[in-house]
Every structure is written in C-alpha cells, then in structure tokens.
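Run: sequence + 4'-deoxy-4'-aminopyridoxal-5'-phosphate -> complex structure.
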Amino acid sequence: MNPIFANLQTSIFEEMSALARLHQAINLGQGFPDDPGPEDVRRKAAEAVVDGWNQYPPMMGIPELRQAVAKHYADHQALSVDPATEVMVTSGATEALCGALLALVTPGDEVVLFEPAYDAYLPLVLRAGGVPRFVKLAPPDWRFTAEQLKAAIGPKTRVVLLNNPQNPSGAVYGAAELQLLADAMKGTDAIVVADEVWEHVIFDRRAHTSVLAVPDLRERAVKIGSAGKIFCLTGWKVGFVVATPPILKVLAKAHQYITFTTPPNLQAAVAYGLGKEAAHFAAMRNDLQAKRDHLAKGLRKAGLTVLATEGTYFLNVDLAPLGLKDDAAFCRRLVTEAGVAAIPVSAFYADASMKSVIRFCFAKNDHTLDESVRRLSEAAPRLVG
Ligand code: PMP
Ligand code: GLN
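>> structure
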C-alpha cells in the first residue's frame, strides 16, 4: 500500500468529532454551523432533484453555475472572469485542491506551504510527489514576511499553496501581503494555488482580496472556492476553480478522472444562491461576527487568552499564558472531562512544533456557546491545575 496514506492518522476533525459523540460533548471541533442554511437555496436543490436533470451534467459544470460564479466574483470581488474558459465546477474545494496538485506538480517539484496548513494539504502534496517547503506562521497575528517568502520560494518552486482567509488561524491577508507573495514569485515558474473557501466569512468590515485581483498573479493563479462555506452548507461539496485558460485546461484533465462531475441538482441550487442579494452575505457575516464576539467574551471571562480572528468559523485560544504545553493532551482532557471538543493546532504543523494553541468553532447558537463556556469555566481549575 502507498505509505503516505497507509501511515496517515485519521483526520483530527474526524477523531475529535468521534470523541465528542462518545462523551456526549459539545462539538466545537470540526467546523460546521448548527444553522440549517438558507432555506430558499435548499428548496432549489430539492426542486432540482424532483423536477430537474439528474443525469451526468457537463464535465466543466452546468453553464448556469459557471456563469453565476463569474458574475458573483465580478459583483463581490470586482474580478473579470470568463465563465466559458476560466471556471470549472468540482466536487468540493477538496477535489479542486487534489486536482490542482496532481495536475501542476511533477515529482521532485517544490511546493510552498504556510503552517498552520489545513490538514489535507500535506498528504496531497506528498502524494503528488511534491517536496514541501514550509513558511511557519506564529501567534498572535500569523503574518508572513518578505524574508520568509524569499527563503522558501525559488527556481524549484512549482506551487505556492496559500489559504486566505486561513484555517485554523483566522488570519486574513490583504493586498499588501499578496503583493509580497507576487514579488517573491517573480522570476520563478511558480503558480499560486489559493484556497479562498472562507472568502465570505470575513469580519470587521474587511473586504476579501483574491489572488486574481493582484495583476502580477492573475495569469499564474488558481482560485478555489466552495459553496459549502459560502452558504454554510458544509456537506454540499460543490467547489469551483477559476484560472486563466492555459492553466484551467490542465486542471480539467485531472478533474475528468477524479470525479468528472458534481451532482447537477446541487449545482443548480448553488447557481441560484450565488445570485442572492449582497444583503444576504452581509447578514451572514454579521451573524457570524456576533457569534465570534459572543464566544470570545465568554472564553475571556473564563480566564482564557483569546487570539484575534479576522475570518473563518474559528477562534483560537493561546494556552501558553496558562503554562500548558501540550495542546493535543489538553483537547483530549477537554472533551472527556469538560464535555467540549476543540482542535489542537499542532495538527496543522508537520513537526507539531506549535503546541500551545487550540481552535474552537463559534458557528453555533448562543445557547450552545454559553453552555460550552459554562462547562469550560467549571472544569478550568481542574484542567489547568
Ligand atoms: N480548504 C479549507 C481551508 C477548508 O477549511 C475546508 C473545509 N473546511 C476545505 C478546504 C474543504 O472544502 P470542501 O468541503 O468544499 O471540500
Ligand atoms: N474544514 C473543516 C474544519 O476545519 C473540517 C473538514 C473535515 O472534517 N475534513 O473544521
């Protein structure tokens, strides 16, 4: 068996969700909202199942969705995208990531990863034959510098895999930081694969800057989005890739032999949803921002050090001020003894070098967040002592 997968552990999300079920804990680990998601979008999907097309859709995605993606990005991010040659629909962002790495990386090529790196990245890079080069980010603000980029990016770099907004840190990188990346990539053949699945989940009046908005990156960038995150319907697994035609053509070759297509009824519903008025997306952001602030306030009251979150469903707690040095052990005790599941951020570092931060998902109703804080406050003296 292939050792990369044979030697892999079960994903930290699956592991913590299973522990949460076993101990009947509140699951603030794996990132999914408890809200059912926009009803009109779900109804569109149901109608499309009953009345619509249920056979193979076109390999690149249904035309309505490809057009909706282009229009959505024009309206929300001022991007100019040709739906016929620059948009492809995939079965979730995960398929898009897998396909991009398989299509772009030749064994021996270097792939730059920013740590903490979303858990799927490293195994997929390794399976594609890529040689990882890490840019390590650290709390409290998780920023990268020109020097770090210069040290990691060079003539052997094939792909720079950037997650923006970043899971699990909650950091959001703006135009100035993307320009640092563009500058570091100058003179190389590298392509930036930008996982922008959290593009709508961004707070404090920030605006998302896509890699495609940076002129120096437009022709050497792959932008990945996910309806799961845009509509808070994480099980939907409808993703989209936007890239210049010469790149997209090659990514399509990988897609045609990974999944080939994505359920047409969900595509139809996502096409409808992407056309919803801007107020819908603003309300979603405001709602999630209020949840972020609600949980942060409760955790601070419980004596925990909460790090700033600029985007995503997640906020992080720094355990270092409590003198705790093993985030994974702490999370295991948290789920078994306090009845709250969280995610140890060391799972997102290949060498587990960062062991003092844990991640909580705040996309839950106030009652659930309050009960989590109550349990944590009650258990804190035991867990910390
Ligand atoms: N990338 C990141 C950074 C994510 O956080 C997630 C899911 N939370 C994904 C990719 C996977 O997206 P999808 O469910 O569309 O495959
Ligand atoms: N992306 C989700 C998170 O960060 C988990 C997805 C998964 O379980 N693979 O929590």
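>> summary
The radius of gyration is 20 Å. Residues 3-30+279-383 form a domain with the Aspartate Aminotransferase, domain 1 fold (CATH 3.90.1150.10).
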